[in-house]
Amino acid sequence: MMRHRLLVAVVVGAATAGVAVAPVAVADPPYKNCSEAHADGRYNITQDDPAYSAKLDRDGDGLACEPKR
């Protein structure tokens, strides 16, 4: 009887844990243009950064919003 209760508790716990995990929504990049990024102090945004957007990478080198030279 004790094993049965333990098994039920484990199954219910596993099922509940699976329900608690929800997928993460993907949002648009936070900056509409590099002027917004620069105003926020952001330069050289890399491709692995959530703020990166290909439209902000003018020369296509993987760095967005590079400072002007």
What would you say this structure looks like, in words?
With 69 residues, this protein is mostly helical. The chain has a domain at 25-69. Helix content is 36%, strand content 6%. The chain has two helices and two strands, in the order ααββ. It has helices at 2-20, 34-39, and strands at 45-46, 63-64. A two-stranded antiparallel sheet has the order 1-2. Keywords: Signal. It holds the Pfam family Excalibur. InterPro entries: Excalibur_Ca-bd_domain (IPR008613). Residues 30-66 form the Excalibur calcium-binding domain.
Helix segment tally: 2
Strand order of the largest sheet: 1-2
Average pLDDT works out at 80
Largest sheet: 2 strands, antiparallel
Q: Which value, in Å, is the CA radius of gyration? A: 23 Å
Strand content: 5-15%
- Proportion of residues in helical segments: 25-40%
N-to-C SSE string, H for helix and E for strand: HHEE
Alpha-beta classification: mainly alpha
Low-confidence stretches: none
The geometry reads as rod-shaped
Keywords: Signal
Organism: Mycolicibacter kumamotonensis
Domain Excalibur calcium-binding: 30-66
Pfam family, one: Excalibur
Helix-strand blueprint:
Blueprint: H1 2-20, H2 34-39, E1 45-46, E2 63-64
Antiparallel strand pairs: 1-2
What's a concise summary of this model?
By secondary structure, the protein is mainly alpha-helical. It has two helices and two strands.
Name its key features.
Calcium-binding protein; 69 residues; mainly alpha; 2 strands; 2 helices; signal; Excalibur_Ca-bd_domain; two-stranded antiparallel sheet
